[in-house]
Each structure stands twice: as structure tokens, then as C-alpha cells.
Specification:
Number of strands of chain A: 25
Number of helices of chain A: 15
Radius of gyration of chain A: 26 Å
CATH superfamily of the largest domain in chain A: Bira Bifunctional Protein, Domain 2
CATH class of the largest domain in chain A: Alpha Beta
Structural class of chain A: alpha+beta
Distance between the termini of chain A: 31 Å
Largest sheet of chain A: 12 strands, mixed
Number of domains of chain A: 3
CATH architecture of the largest domain in chain A: 2-Layer Sandwich
Shape of chain A: globular
Strand content of chain A: 25-35%
Oligomer: homodimer
Largest interface: A-B, 64 and 64 residues
């Protein structure tokens, strides 16, 4: 184990392999026996739980209520909204039978051929169809609106090429599904939620995301408009981290969901949906970590501070424990999660490497001599810098240090990103530059054909039309046709 | 809607129908378009969330860590543990294909026959098999033990007869799966968790449960021993509310999970698993509610206090709002959830009936005259008693009242249960008495044959051998063979 710890591939050598190894070695997740599905291990799940709890509180402050809808969706529901079924991947898990039986010719079990379902059921790839089928019974009058519902759930899409957290056949997510009386209100909620996601990404994940609108090609199947937050990874590739869709009246029409408006006239309901998933874990890992392992922003770290005692005998340990116990209590009272690792079966050096690998933001090391001097050794994970702190006033110093680390991780990511955002006006230059990664601000003629050509020739896609972009007269770098603003083009996960 | 509210079937008329109607009318859940699967509506889900959060905190205080394992289980995994596959219902959702395609002969989609899975996958009915398949890689030495893992998840069992919350094809639950180095440690955890469930049921659900051991026939498939908590519903039937299973080394042997013990010898790992589900919602509803609707124990009520202003005009409402706002803030500061319902589209009488139906523990009504008198009308949901309280000191009075209500609901349930627990020594008497419901303490000869006979003749089952039961020489009421202690027999949900 101690030796394994040392063998993390360097980012420069192979970024992709570095990521795959890190996920496993930092004890976040592992491949399961089921193709494309992962096991989220306790340490990884603790990070996801922190994300969940934070987001859930942010949602509820805006009036969101949680609910739960069925896992399985009748096949016919998927076909109701034409664009949805057309655009949505048809790779999904299909339930066709409801019983096993003992194998008459062997020892195992077989699927009972007599227990075939009349209509096949699909493991939800997303829940618009089943939810709008349900909302039909909830909505009669404008008084029943708005419905601001969210569910935390597992979903499945039968992905061919999977990578842990980034793209797995089963993943965990939240999906919000709102019903409104007016188009304006629905659009406002759609924008509110993408802004909420951006705030969460920036404040908690230390991720400087760009907010933008997807092109028609990249938008959610069945949506009028898709908003996205796009983050840049250390290899310059984009990672779509959250989306919010204005669905117009498409699903209401498909499922015949009308309401009597204030003027006493029937009208189709206005819809939006929005979601983030365990993919955020991938973004978090890829954006900040280094060749020594995970780097976790303190706001999402399950263990924010680890204290490693350096001792030769039980007496020394007792003295250290006595000194450190009131400090741990003070830190806990401040809501800081601390682990005091006095396990005597592992050497301090092993522990140091392990907590570095696991991205614990602050590591304290304390021995007998430190107590005499009234100091303690502090290592911050983001910069790997060591320093001495006074034991007196330690809880306050640590609290301030955690905030400093949080800010520093964000600043570093922002600096990295800004250094790799570039305006490019020549397609030839673009084709050269894209090989090095980065976000490219380019003029585009607005046609799916040009978009498709860029993708086919460079593997890069239009990530979004950034919301804070300025209007600017220009010409498409590919066709020379007029363009009013720049879009962000990048290769993406 | 106002009229519908009045039409809740009375418990005396038809207890079963009363329950079904209540679940829907109190806005807790409804049937979905998918057979046997329910939609948990926001109000119902808010209660489940409170249960989840409370249990999760209780778990974590005992060292439990959460994780997540795949939804789909390879068919072959289910067959590994012989008793498990034999005893476990084979009614389950089977995934056989991974793709749909456009119907060449129509407009919809069909299952792509070419996308047939080599090995079918089962939507988890419980996760012992996939988890023990995973633990094999986590466990090498005694240093890797114990593993105290839990997951919050959805599971599916293809039930033929379903009832919302009590028995649904898909349900939400938590399942804990522990791995230990010794049989003693595993047994201790098994018992610890059933005690934790009992504490939760008593303190939060106000449910006086009996802790006991299941008979061999009723035990979990693959377990050495199953502990249970059994609650009594108002019709005298039992509802199994939580179970904890000592799995011995059965799953470790089936999945070949060994560890090197302190003596440096390989040994199979010791296992237990334990779970509660959305079935607890059914227990909560059935145990306490009355002919006016839901009765919620304050500790689990999403809205603990509702304040209904009685006003004729905006001026009066403004005055009430001014008086009540600081009180709401004080209640909130005490962690009490308050709703101030100033919706002027609904009459107070409608609101009263609606909050009664929804089981809000405390209702306050306040009008202009009350403000002058410095008093407020209080209605407590458990007894439906009205009284006047002084506005001065209201937050403290309400806080005390909520605790009083919590205790009263428990006391009432305990009294009801105790009045219907009866020692019976004659099988004839038992056959007569069982028709009226209740828990019967009877001597049983310990054989599956007698157990089966009782079940066949009376539809009653041995719920458990109560842990706090005394040793007592006796003879089986059916066969006259010797018995050392009484068991609890009842009809059950």
C-alpha cells in the first residue's frame, strides 16, 4: 500500500491515466462488476453528500420541494414528445420480464419466459416524461401553479465508453422539474437555477465556471433553450457541469397538461428542468488535484483538518492528546471537521502521504518538542507549504487558513483558465491551437452545418454562447459569413 | 376540494379504505402509471426526509459511513448464496436489453432485438450479493475491518398486491452492510442496530415497538438470525418496521471473502445487514391518525405549527402580521417549523380542515379581537382540543406543547397496544380472539410445522420471540408439546 501510494502517474505524462488512478487511489470510487457502473466508496460518497446537502439547502431557500417519482418508465411515455425521443440516446436499460425461476436444466436461475411484461419498462434516463404524466393530475387551475419540484435519484444511460464520475451508465443526480403559468416565470426559474449552479460551483467547488447558452445542436432534446455552466480542466478541456432547460410548452402539449388561467381560459403549462450529477465529482477532482493526489476545497472536504501525532511511546502520545483535545473541541465547535489519527500501526510518513493523496486541506503534525515550544507544524495541501503556528489561538488561525485555501484554490483555477481563453479569428490558427487545449472565443455563422464541420475536423464543439459576452460585429472563422458575437469552442469531456 | 375533504372514510367503517384514502387526501403519495409503483408527493417526501436525516445522524454517531453500490445486479450473483436465492422472492425486474430503436413498422420505438445482454441484470431487491462481491476487494487483513457501510437507495420487488408505502414494487430504504473480524462483534452490531431502530421508532415516530427475534421460517434468506421491531396498528395488526440480520459467514463464503486474522491465519469475514424503508411511512400514518386525517408526531412533522389569521380586510391582516412576525421568528430560532398561511383565496374553515387532514400538530388562529385581548386560539391535533394561550410567552408555551403532544401520541399508542396484548393458552380461544386483532402471547413448540398450521388456519404468523420475554415453562397451544417461552402471534401487514 505504501509503495502503491507513490505510483500516481504524473499529469504531464498522461492526464487521463492520472485521473483514473487518482479516483481509485484516493478511495473515491471503483469499477463494479456491472459494466459501466461504479461503486462510490465512503470517502468519495462523503464528498458527494456535502455537495448534496449544500445544493439541497440552496434549492430550498428558493422554494424547491423534494419528491420522488418511479424508477421505471413505460416505453410508450418516451415516445410522446417527438423531439425528446428523437434527440435522446436510445441506449437505455430495458426491463422486459418480472420473474426468475429455477433453471430446470441446471442449478442456477433463468428468466421465466412466462413473466414477460406487456409493455417494456425503461430505467429512467431522465424523468421529464413520467413527471409530466404525473403533473397532469396535479394541475387544474393557475392556483395549482407553480410547482417547483426536485428529486435526488439514480438514472441510467447505457454508455459505450465510460469513465468514473465523468460518464457512467448509472449515475446519481438531482433533477428539478417546474411547472409555471407563464413563459416569463418559467424562463426566470430556468435562469435562476443556472445562476444557482454557478454560485455553488464557484463558492463551494472553487470552480470558475462560464455561464452560457447551448446551440440548437447541443441543447437538451425537447428544450427551447438550454443554459449550461462550463468548467475548464487542467488539460484545457471543457467539462459541462450543470444544465437548466427551458422546455416551453413541449412536454405540457405531449402529456396534455393544461390549466385554467386567471382569465378562465385553458392554457398549456410552461416547463423547465435542471440538473447536476455525480459528474461534478469528476470536475472537482480534475480541476484542482496535482501529482501528489487530490486537492479538495475546504468547503467540500469531508475531513478538513487532520492531526498526526509524532510519538515514540504511550506517554508522549498521552501528552500530545492532552494538549490537542481542547483544540479539537474548539475546532468542532466552529463546525470544522477534524480527524486525530493516533493509529500506531502506521508510520507518520505513511499517514502524511495518504492524507496528501486524499486531499485533506490542512495537516497538523505535533510532537513532544513542539508542545514545549508551544508550536505546531502546519502543511497546507493546496501549496504543500509547511509552516509553524502558535498553539495559542490555533482554532482561529486554522479557521482563517481554511478560508484562505478555499480562495487560493479558486484563484489558481481562475488564473489557469484565464491564461487559456483566447480570441481566435482564423480557422487555420484555431486548428493548430486546439491541439493544446483551451477555450477559444470565435465568431460562428450560427448554422448547424458549420458547427458540425468544426466538430468533424477538430473534435471541438461549441460549448456555449457565453451570457456575459459582448455584442461584436465579426465574421465566422470558417465561412466568413457575418456573426454578432463570439462563442466558446473547446474540446470537451 | 373542500367537499372532498369531508369524505374520509371512518376507521370503524373500513380501516383499509380509510388508510388508502388518507394517503391520497393528505397529499402524501399516489399511484403512478407504473404498476405497483407510487409517486411520493412533496408533503409525504418531507416526512420521509425528516426520518432519513434523523436516522442518518443516529447511524453516523455509531460510526456508519455511507456509500453507493450499483442498481443492477448480474443474475449469477443472486445464485451464489444458496439459501438467499432459494428464500428470496424471484419476482423482480429483469433487464434483458440495452437499446431501443425506431419501430420500422410504426411511429414509436421498439426494443432492439440485437441489443440483448449476454447476462441479464436484476434491479436490486436488496444488495447483499453485489456488496459482498465488492467487499472481496476491500478486505485483506483484520486491519481492513470492520467495514460499517450504509446506502440510501431505491429497491424493487415485483409485488403482486401493493399498497402505498406498506408494500410497493419500488420503495426507498437504507441498507447497512457490515463486515467484522469476529462473530461476537458482528452479533453486537446486529443487536445495536435493532436497538437503534427501536429508539428511533419510540422517540421520533412515537411508536411503542416490540423488539424480538424472528423464527427460522420468517428470517431473512441467508441469515442465521433476524431481529425485528414490530408495531401494532389501530386495527390490532402487526407491522414489521425494521430488521437487522446476523448473516454469519454465509455471504463471505458465497463470495469468498476472507481476511488474515491477528494470528496470521485466513478466516471468512462475519457479516450483518439491517434496513428500514418507506414502509415506516405506512406505520406512522396507520398508528396515530384518526377519522379527521393524519396525526403527525411533532418530531417528524414538516410543519409543526400553522398560524391562520382571521381577517376581514388588509388592515386587519397587516395588524395580525405585525403581531405575529416576531413570534414566528422566535419559534424559528427554537428550530420549530412554522407556516403563516395568509392566503386570502381560501376561507379559514377550509384551512382548518386541510391542516387537520395533513396532521399539523399545532394550529394557531388569531383575529383582531385576540390581539386586543392579548390571547391566541390554539388547537392541538392529537386531541383536537382548543384553548386560549397568552401571546406573551407564546414561543415557550408552544415549545412545551409540542413536546407534550409528542409524548401524548406515544402514550396513547402504548395504551392502545397494551390493551390488546393478551396471553392465550388455548388454540380454540386463539382462533376466536385473533378475529378481533391484537398481539397474542402464546406457547409454541418451536417447529415450522406448527407455525405453518397456525398460519394456514388463522392467517396469523409468529411475529417474533420478544427479547424482553421471560422464560416460562408451558405447553404449545396447538400440539401440547413443551415450550420454554411465549412468542407473539398476530395477523400482519
Amino acid at each position: 500500500m505504501a509503495i502503491e501510494l507513490q505510483h500516481l502517474t504524473k499529469r504531464q505524462e498522461n492526464y487521463s491515466q492520472w485521473y483514473n488512478e487518482l479516483v481509485v487511489k484516493a478511495d473515491l470510487a471503483e469499477q463494479s462488476a456491472v459494466r459501466g457502473c461504479m461503486v462510490i466508496k465512503p470517502y468519495g460518497y462523503a464528498i458527494w453528500e456535502k455537495m448534496q446537502q449544500t445544493l439541497d439547502q440552496m434549492f430550498k431557500r428558493t422554494g424547491v420541494k423534494n419528491a420522488y417519482f418511479p424508477l421505471l418508465i413505460p416505453k410508450s411515455f418516451l415516445c410522446r414528445e417527438a423531439e425528446h425521443v428523437e434527440g435522446f440516446a436510445k441506449e437505455c436499460a430495458v426491463v422486459t420480464h418480472y420473474r426468475l425461476k429455477n433453471d430446470p436444466n441446471g442449478t442456477g436461475v433463468i428468466v421465466d419466459p412466462e413473466a414477460r411484461l406487456e409493455e417494456e419498462l425503461i430505467v429512467r434516463p431522465t424523468s421529464e416524461t413520467i413527471i409530466w404524466g404525473t403533473y397532469k393530475n396535479w394541475i387544474h387551475s393557475y392556483r395549482d401553479l407553480p410547482i417547483i419540484c426536485n428529486q435526488w435519484a439514480n438514472v441510467m444511460r447505457w454508455e459505450m465508453r465510460t469513465r468514473m464520475f465523468l460518464r457512467t451508465s448509472e449515475f446519481l443526480w438531482q433533477e428539478g422539474h417546474c411547472a409555471h403559468a407563464t413563459a416569463e416565470e418559467s424562463e426566470a426559474r430556468t435562469v435562476q437555477m443556472i445562476n444557482l449552479y454557478a454560485e455553488f460551483a464557484r463558492k463551494y467547488m472553487a470552480l470558475p465556471v462560464v455561464i452560457g447558452v447551448k446551440t440548437e445542436t447541443e441543447r437538451f432534446a425537447g428544450a427551447l433553450n438550454t443554459y449550461t455552466i462550463e468548467a475548464m480542466m487542467q488539460d484545457g478541456k471543457a467539462l459541462q457541469s450543470g444544465t437548466s432547460h427551458n422546455l416551453g410548452q413541449n412536454f405540457a402539449k405531449a402529456f396534455d397538461v393544461t390549466f385554467v388561467n386567471k382569465e378562465n381560459k385553458p392554457e398549456y403549462v410552461w416547463a423547465n428542468s435542471w440538473g447536476v450529477s455525480t459528474r461534478l465529482m469528476g470536475a472537482l477532482i480534475m480541476a484542482h488535484s496535482d501529482d501528489n493526489g487530490l486537492v479538495l476545497p475546504p468547503h467540500l472536504a469531508p475531513i478538513q483538518v487532520v492531526i498526526v501525532p509524532i510519538f515514540k511511546n504511550a506517554e508522549q502520545l498521552a501528552k500530545i492528546t492532552e494538549t490537542i483535545t481542547p483544540i479539537i473541541e474548539e475546532l468542532a465547535a466552529k463546525g470544522i471537521s477534524v480527524k486525530f489519527d493516533d493509529d500506531d500501526k502506521k508510520r507518520p510518513g505513511f499517514k502524511f502521504a495518504d492524507y496528501e493523496l486524499k486531499g485533506v486541506p490542512v495537516r497538523l503534525a505535533i510532537g513532544a518538542r513542539d508542545i514545549e515550544a508551544g508550536t505546531i507544524e502546519v502543511m497546507r495541501r493546496d501549496t504543500l507549504e509547511k509552516s509553524q503556528l502558535q498553539i495559542a489561538g490555533l482554532p482561529e488561525s486554522i479557521e482563517a487558513l481554511l478560508e484562505e485555501i478555499q480562495q487560493n484554490i479558486y484563484d489558481k483555477a481562475l488564473k489557469m483558465r484565464d491564461s487559456r481563453v483566447k480570441k481566435v479569428d482564423s480557422y487555420d490558427e484555431f486548428k493548430k491551437e486546439i491541439e493544446n487545449g483551451g477555450f477559444f472565443l470565435c465568431h460562428w455563422d450560427g448554422t448547424p452545418e458549420t458547427e458540425e464541420l468544426i466538430k468533424a475536423e477538430t473534435k471541438a464543439t461549441i460549448r456555449c454562447i457565453p451570457l456575459d459576452g459582448e455584442e461584436e460585429e465579426g465574421v465566422c472563422m470558417v465561412t466568413g459569413k457575418p456573426s454578432k458575437r463570439r462563442v466558446i469552442i473547446a474540446r470537451a469531456y
